[in-house]
Every structure is written in C-alpha cells, then in structure tokens.
Amino acid sequence: MALSFEGRVVLVTGSGGGLGREYALAFAERGASVVVNDLGADIKGGGKSSAAADKVVEEIRAKGGKAVANYDSVEDGEKVIQSALDAFGRIGENCLCVATYRILRDRSFARTSDLDWDLIHRVHLRGAFFVTRAAWSHMKKQKFGRIIMTASAAGIYGNFGQANYSAAKLGMLGLSNTLAIEGRNYNIHCNTLAPVAGSRLTETVMTPELVASLKPEYVAPMVLWLCHEQCQENGALFEAGAGWIGKLRWERSQGCVVRQKNQPMTPEAVRDQWDKICDFTDATKPTSVQGHPVTKKTNCLHNVSLHCTEQRYNPRTCVCVFLYERHEDFGCLPTFGVIPAQAAMMDGGLSAIPGLNIDFTRVLHGEQYLELYKPLPTSGISLSTTIMNTYSGDQLICFNQFSVFVVGAGGFGGSRTSDKAKAALPPPKRAPDVVMIDSTTRDQAALYRLSGDWNPLHIDPSFAAMGGFQAPILHGLCSFGFAARHVLKQFADNDPSRFKAIKVRFVKPVMPGQLLQTEMWKEGNRIHLQCKVKETDAVVLAGAYVDLHGASEASPENLPQHGALQSELVFAEIGRRINDSGSELVKKVNAVFAWEITKDGKSAAEWTVDLKNGSGSLRRGAPSGKADVTLTVSDEDFVEVVQGRLNPQKAFFSGKLKVRGNIMLSQKLEVILKDNAKL
User: Which of 165, 369, 391, 448 is catalytic?
Assistant: First the structure.
C-alpha cells in the first residue's frame, strides 16, 4: 500500500531549492499540506528574496497540491510555525523536516572569522533549535510529530575548510538524539539524515556528471519514510545518496580499567595499557548514555571489570538465628551463597567506581539468581570475581546474577533488561501442591544484618524514610532465604546438597514481624514458588523457582572435585556455559577442541571441549575420536591468556601456545571464553 500523507501538515525549512524543494514536492504529491520556508538568501547567507519559496509553491499548486510560502528566517521560529497554524490550523499533526539550510562559508580554520562561525551556527544549529522549539508544544499536545534534522558527512567525519559547518552539523545530531529521548513518550520521533546530493552547495566542487548522479530525488524517499506514522525509527543516524541508504552507529572498544584501588592513576598506566584501550576486538555498539561502561557497572548481569573481593567467614557468620554451629548436622544454608558475591559488588565494586553517583537510599534489589556447583563450606575464604563466580580455594562454588533498580533513575533510554538474565517464570495454573507459613520476628532485619548485608535501609528509620519507606523493611534476601528453606524442608529432606539453583523476583517489601506464606508447585526437579505476606495477601516474591538435584545427582562423587591447577577454574566456567547454552554453542562453533595443560614442563591435565555433537560437553581427558584442534599450553600461561594479561597471538608466535589441526577454528573459542579471553 502506498504511503499517504493526507491530513498531515509538513514544514520544510530551506525548501526554496535543492533537497528541501524535493522534499516539499514529494510530500505534496502524497497529499500533505506543505509550508515552504525559505529566506531567499544567497549561498553565503546574504540578501533576501521571496522568489525561491514562491516558485516551489507554484509548482505544488500547479499539480493540485496544497502549499503556502513562508519567508521568515529560521531564527524566527515562532513566526515560521505561526504561518503553518494560520494556513492550515495545526502543526501538532505534522512532520517537521529541518532540511539543509542552503548556506556555506567555507574557510580553513586559521582564516575563519567570527562572522563565518556565528552565521553558520545561527542558521544551521540555532535555527533548528528555534523552529523545533516553537513546534514542540503543539506536537506534545496532539501526541504526534516527526522531525528530521539534516546533518552532514562533514559533521560526522570532519572536512578540511569546514570547521564552522562541521561543528554546527554535529551539534544538530546531538540535538536530534536528545529530542528523540524526550519526545518518545509523546509519539514524537526525531532522526538525523546526512544526505549527499547535487545542489548549489556542491555544484562548485563536483563534476556535472557527479552532480547528475546525486539527484535530490534519490534522497527524498528516505525522508518521507522516516516521517510516516508507520515508521517507528527514532534517534537514528542515516547517510543517503545516489539511491544508497545506510545506518550509522557508534562503536566502543572494551577498554581497560587503569585505576587501581587506593592508588593514584598515572599517565604511565595509560601508556602501558594503550594497546588494550584501543583494541576493537569484541567492540560494543552503545546506543545511549546508559551504555557507558561506568554506568553499565551498576548492573551485575554485565561482565564488568571490577576487582575480585576476598571475604573470610566462619560457622557463626552462617548461623543467623536458626542453627547451632556445633551440631553434628550443621550446614550452610545454600542461599548464603549470595553474600560473598554481594560483597564483591558493593564493597570495592560499585562504590569504588569513579564518577558513579548512586543514591543508595533509592536502591532496590529487583531479581536474584543463584546457582551452586557444590555445597557451601561452613568456613573459609571466598573469592568473588567480576562475573559473580565465587570460589573457595581453587574450587568454583557458586554463580550469582543481581538485578538492581535505582528508584527515580529511569528515562535514560537504555535497555530495560539483559539477554544474560535468567528469566523469572510464572507458576503452574493450578492450586499449589504445598503451602507453608512462617513467622518473621520484629528483630528479623537486625539479625539478618549479621550475615554481612549492612544496608542501613533495614535498620535505620531515618535512612528508610529517605528511601520513601515508613519504617525499615526486611531484606529481600532474607525472604529469599525463607523461601529456599521451605523448599528444602518440603521437597529435599533438608539436605542442602540437593539444592542446585534459585531464581526470584522481589515484588514488594516485607515488614519485620509479618507472616510469610510460601506456595509451592512441584514440576519434576523444579519447584515453582511464590511468597506472600499472610496478613495482606500481597505477593512479595514472584516468578520464582528452585531447581533441585535428584538424590543420586547430589552424592559426593558427582560433585565437582578439588583441583590443584588454576586452569580447572576456567574449565569449570566453560562447563557452566555449555550447560547453559550448549545447543546454541554447537551451532556457532561445530568443532571439537582438545586441551593439553602442562605444569613445570610436564603434562598435567587433558580436557575435551566438544562443541560439535549433541548439546555439547566438557570432559576431563583426551577426546575419544579425532579433535579438530589441539591446543597445548602451560597452566600459568593459559590463565594469563584468559585474564587478558597475555595476548594469545603473542603466546602462539613465542611458542607458549601450540596449536595443531585447523588453526582457524581456534578463533571460535572466543564464543566460550567471551568476556574472559580473546582466543
């Protein structure tokens, strides 16, 4: 179906010739009422004439279209918009095209005068501001608007002799991006186009043949599509010319943290990490300020570059209120596994990031996922890494995902979720199989703080009031612990080794002293659950489930064993990733890798990573058949590569890393070592 603009009012600035004229004609041909704005100045911004705008209006009317002329400067934005209101009665239901302002004052930077600079900025950037501001309230009122800012390749890439023009055009891109954010809730979309077309601005520097191939009519269809109500594109940048159209986006290297905690940051540290800072391997494509690495670190679902945190704990740390540490059956409640990871995130983590300002009175815990790889020891030293893995010695113990919300900090334009998040799941649509009610105590929050969660929101009434609560609330993770304990009691005979994973969404707060009611549904080894406050029937934990090991799966011989090699931690992580998304990895990689790990020059371990068969697998030992790639590396060098301290190419050419077989397939290892290595 053809795109129609019947009933729409379109203002095209600078439309007395060139691109603007072509836009005006195209809109009118498809039924729009067009305001043809042009001051009639010459190419350097001098003079004034009504002839250019009048001629375009005559062309439109001769073809049966509707158009009026406006001769005001774009710096008189209110007058320009008023002319549309006077002629057609509305501007809110419009498509506002800020077309190419048809003046240039090119000079080399050294020869650019104040007038050269100011005139270009007044017409291009300041003019765009005045016209758009005048139309903005009308668009918001009628909840519709389409705005096109015309930028330039000179603004995107720079161009000799056009410092004034480049700066103004890039300024229009920034203006457009912000308008896209502020207008989206009102159905106002703003995009930027950098066209290449033959016009009076380019005919002096292009051959006639090139000008002929770059007709404005080859750009106009793109403008019409972006302005149509069917088009939902917003905040984007495009280049167009000669019938070709392309979308542009930013790219950012992974970068490198060069600041060490409690140490001054030095230029030498920047110099030493320069190659890593400028390495675009695994580059990201940011789309908003929320994608900035500093603000991104507020979401622990992303693998951020923070330091590891060491935490010592003992049996009394694990006790809280339910257990006696000298009982023969004493064990650590599985949900205690969140505490070391939470310390890594908050202590020396988020709070140590320079430039990150979060009001911690407004921080709420949104969701939590915890997966255990073996029962938690009742004492020891835990090490929680930047990807929320927790180790005891060389053993991988558990993995955490946190979702954290900052009240009142929305509207940034970024993604509301992450593709790395473990999804919350609704319970079955039937009555629960088991319901268990437990009482929290008035001092429950004070007791829970002893586990290591010291947030004053849960103990200090004045701090809670700053967060908008009438009194200190119970830790969400305390309710989380109640729910897990209920599942273990009802379905696992209180055996913590049966616990595999838990996912919850924190919905509403619990006040200390209230009754917690846990409703549970058994589906195989997965127990769906939701928690309510008994007194109010308000759901406080939703979309939750606990995964259990079968009785045989939880036996000691089936749990991960202690290893003396550092590389075993890496292979444990590879195994977790294969377990999570093996089928997808097999599709992407389709290869079998054999690893020969050496220690002190002698063979120490062999591993097979099969991403070719079934859903993928990891096993200790040599492959049963032929491997596509065999890699030999020392335990120490392998860990150095994974941690990014040793470049894999340098390791290969220096002989530290030996590769046999299809060497090109080794590049696919990036899929399973992503965020930890560059192989």
Answer: 165
